[in-house]
Each structure stands twice: as C-alpha cells, then as structure tokens.
Specification:
Length: 104
C-alpha cells in the first residue's frame, strides 16, 4: 500500500528548508502513518537532496505529521537553479512511499 492511499500531503518552504505535512484520511490510517513514517524514513526517501536533518512533529488532533527538511532546497528559492525551487513536488513524491497495510 502506498502512503497516498492513507493520507494526503502539502508542502511549503522557507529559505532552504522545506516542510511536508502528511494528513491521514482517518484514525486507522493515522495509526499506520504515525508508526511507519519516521524522520529517518523521510530522509532516506530523498537521497538526492542536500538535507542536513529532518524534524518530525505529531499533530494528533488533525491526524497529521509535519516534517521539516532542513537544507532540502539548498540555499533557498531565490538562489537555486532547481526546477522545483519551492519544493512543491516533494509532498507528491513522499506519497509514493510504500506502507504496510497494518501496523504490527
């Protein structure tokens, strides 16, 4: 099962930092996402980005996890030649991550 079957996501940016918020469709999906989607797993999913660290924040009231990807956008939107300088496609890319259907 792919993450996109359990949740949707939005991304944003500030300077060279990108953030991705993953919001589960329901409580059961949130339980799987909360157990499966660690900061390390998110970092490993983007091996080509210059990420220095990933912070994870849980927002259970919204069935959401917020990930802050430090350095993901290099020197920032105004100083990069990347095609996706704002990192908007990062949330779509993350939704392609494989998840287990149930937490064991």
């Amino acid at each position: 099962m792919l993450l996109r079957e359990l949740a949707h996501a939005r991304s944003g940016d500030k300077g060279g930092t990108s953030d991705i918020t993953v919001v589960a469709f329901d409580a059961a999906g949130y339980d799987v996402v909360r157990h499966e989607l660690s900061a390390d797993r998110v970092r490993e999913h983007f091996p080509d980005l210059p990420i220095s660290a990933v912070d994870r924040y849980e927002i259970p009231q919204l069935l959401a996890l917020k990930f802050v990807l430090h350095g993901a956008l290099g020197r920032g939107v105004t100083q990069t030649l990347n095609l996706d300088a704002h990192g908007k496609s990062l949330s779509s890319c993350l939704l392609g991550l494989s998840m287990r259907a149930e937490h064991e």
